[in-house]
Amino acid sequence: MTTLLQQGVTAQAQARPEAVALVFNGVRMTYGALEEASNRLAHLLVAAGCRRGDRVALLMPKMPAAIVAMLGVLKADAIYVPLNPADPGARLALTLESSDCRCILAAGPVGPVLRDTLATAALQQRPLIGWLDAETPSAGEPAPSFSWRDLAACPATPRAYSNTGDDVAHILFTSGSTGIPKGVMITHASVGHVIRWALAYFGIDRTDRISQHPPLRFDVSTFDIFCALWAGAELHLVPPELNLLPHKLAQFIRESRLTQWFSVPSVLNLMAKFDAVRQRDFPDLRRVLFAGEAIPTPTLIHWMRRLPHAQFTNLYGPTETTIVSSYYTVPRCPTDERAPVPIGTACDGEELLILDGQLRPVAQVLDERLRPLAEGEVGDLYIRGVGLSPGYWRDPEKTRSAFLPFPGGAGPHDRLYKTGDLARRGADGLFYFVGRADMQIKSRGYRIELGEIEAALNSLPSLRESAVVAIPSEGFEGWLVCCAYVPAPRNGVSLEGLRKGLAALVPGYMLPARWMRYDALPKNANGKFDRPRLKEDFAKAESSPEKAQVKTPSPDDPGATEWSVNAAFGRG
């Protein structure tokens, strides 16, 4: 059985060296070339002083060199740490300080941000700089310790590994509540378990052409990369400049003749709202996978009606539990636009549990075979199983607070991860995501799930996309419910019309008191709605004495305030 992530790629390279492994902007790289280049890089890293367990940062945009870098680091028995080149130097410096990287591998137009990062970071020792690009750094940018030219002098043969499956393969840094990024450690064994499950469940093989859409620092990218390369399939890297161009993305799927597409639901939503998918489009597409956030049911209906030949699967799993913990393949096109899409059932080796504050199972009505008869209560969603991360890099306190001993478990390694999500189990036995625990508020005495308001808004045809957040209020209500939205193309929309449509779907106390119109909602690096940014926008507008207001009377609410994001902040 394949133990280390790079071994699955080596096996394909030995069996079919001339087969295409990577495709990017018209450039095609074979398995044989990928294997040799990553072998050379591994030898070069070891010769430069990298040792087992050292962290190697990857500072480069999505490109074939990035995949070579990942594999080369793993073959050197080291740990790769993907960085986002679009982040400011100050934030990248925090990641470098935390990970204590031995080396930084860079490529593409990252010289200026690398210079700023190194100037800001307080490091015990300056890391090695490896430049994996034909273009040399400009004057004033950090001089490399070695470059791509040095690879030619290194052996193309594999080197012996010291790592085991329990060793960390990569560290993915996510936003921390304190402002300092926290690094999630992911092992070879946990990724390998997910990949083996996915290859068997989806039937992925060498005939597949698989998308690689998310940024390399997003855990779903690991799924795309190693599913494709372990199966001997073609991995098609989606150019980042296409991310917000729905018709260009659709054209990419057509021209690449993809058989599998995987993205966050907001991308599918964007393509649906701009009507980028034709009837019976993408004839080669076998599977559409989505994860990372709840998919609006109208968006799923839109896609399934146009692509009746494709299989649609909702995948769920936090980074801390290694990519995927549960799955739900939609059996037929939904008929109710407000019916939620389940997160389904646990993957092999995983277990989903809905517990209360004392780690007791929430109430569930079961029959004599212990099958659900009615919808269970909402509770905190925990995950137990083989996918759990060892914890957060050099942060035992955060690790202890998020990874808990399983009550009555088999030993110290039998742990639970508290996801921070709320969920319930339906009468159909499936698990349903209800919302984030931090998206539940209490306003005017009412308990409100912001996710429920979002689901209702997503069913309104007049909106292209929308997100609901809450900000503290000095008034009696405690919290102000705020809706950020983008009108659908060619669809006139007014605040009065929006409120009227939403009022038909949710109680009056759930109607947002603040509204903000955007040309496009801000997204974070993972393609999800940037909710902290939205809260900041609303808080800034709330405190500004010069705001553009539109009042709409309501029986439940004496008025609603709407701002244009440009009017409120002088943007545009």
Can you characterise this structure?
The chain is of the alpha/beta class and 572 residues long. The chain has three domains: 5-237, Rossmann fold (3-Layer(aba) Sandwich); 346-436, Roll (Luciferase, domain 3), CATH 2.30.38; 444-569, ANL, C-terminal domain (GMP Synthetase, Chain A, domain 3), CATH 3.30.300.30. Helix content is 28%, strand content 24%. It contains 15 helices and 28 strands. The strands form seven sheets. The protein has a five-stranded parallel beta sheet with strand order 4-3-5-6-7, covered by helices on one side. A five-stranded mixed beta sheet has the order 12-13-14-15-16. Helix 8 (246-256) crosses helix 9 (265-273). The longest helix has 18 residues, at 31-48. It is globular. Residues 548-558 and 566-572 have low confidence and may be disordered.
Please outline what is shown here.
With 572 residues, the protein is of the alpha/beta class.
Give the topology.
Elements: H1 5-15, E1 20-24, E2 27-30, H2 31-48, E3 55-59, H3 64-75, E4 79-82, H4 89-99, E5 103-106, H5 111-120, E6 128-131, E7 146-147, E8 168-174, E9 182-187, H6 188-202, E10 209-212, H7 219-231, E11 234-237, H8 246-256, E12 260-263, H9 265-273, E13 287-290, H10 297-306, E14 311-316, E15 326-329, E16 345-346, E17 350-355, E18 379-385, E19 391-392, H11 396-402, E20 403-405, E21 415-425, E22 431-436, E23 440-443, E24 446-449, H12 450-458, E25 463-472, E26 479-487, H13 495-503, E27 514-517, H14 531-543, E28 561-564, H15 565-569
Parallel strand pairs: 1-11, 3-4, 3-5, 5-6, 6-7, 10-11, 12-13, 13-14, 26-27, 27-28
Antiparallel strand pairs: 1-2, 8-9, 9-19, 14-15, 15-16, 17-18, 18-21, 20-21, 21-22, 23-24, 25-26
Helix pairs in contact: 1-2, 1-7, 2-3, 4-5, 6-7, 8-9, 9-10
